[in-house]
């Protein structure tokens, strides 16, 4: 087993180790683009939906709400803003495509390999470029959400996870700690990385959309690697964007490998549990 990577933020990402029993609850890839307000209209996204519907035949209309705050004279005014997001699913709902006025996102709860994931994402970006034709990509990212929820594994965190990510989750204090969560935003060689990790009680989650609550105690590691720089400036094409997203995935994986011990890799190989 390879030694621990010394610098997960700027160092060379390690060779990937296949974990067929990886404790992943969700994997996400995203490309953001200059806002296209018409995406909120059903008739505008028809050609795109038709081009992807064999893989994503189920479509739903979702509305995300947010509060926009602005200065108004001597005071502050707030308004409720709504944004339509089109959700498309495969027949088993293991894959979800989200199309918003400024982003295309692919998520899965059934991650098998990066190659399969990026092939699906490239297909979607190609369809978006052909039908809706965004003029400019503004941000790309890749996100891994891991969760350990088997009691034997939670009890063995000290042998699975590096000390920097344990803190009050260490074995010496765990019996008296109900919840502890940490967050770090870091500069990387390619952009930025947001990492969140911690110990949660039964029924709790750090992000309900990404990791629905579970009925047992759990430990999570959520790694989001993204960038707004080095993106193509001469059009919106899938090839260069997928290459950049793959680089973001490499950086997220480098942080993951820095965070876990060799025994983690051994335990979550196929058949080792």
Structure commentary:
- This protein is an alpha+beta fold.
- It is built from six helices and nine strands; from the N terminus they run βαββββαβααβββαα.
- The protein has one domain (24-267).
- The mean pLDDT is 91.
- It is 23% helix and 33% strand.
- It is globular, with a radius of gyration of 20 Å.
- The longest helix has 22 residues, at 238-259.
- The chain has a nine-stranded antiparallel sheet.
Structure characteristics:
6 helices, single chain, 273 residues, alpha+beta, 9-stranded antiparallel β-sheet
Distance between the termini: 18 Å
Q: List the strand order in the largest sheet.
A: 2-3-4-5-1-6-9-8-7
Number of helices: 6
Could you tell me the mean pLDDT? 91
Largest sheet: 9 strands, antiparallel
| Helix proportion range | 10-25%
Write the H/E string, N to C.
EHEEEEHEHHEEEHH
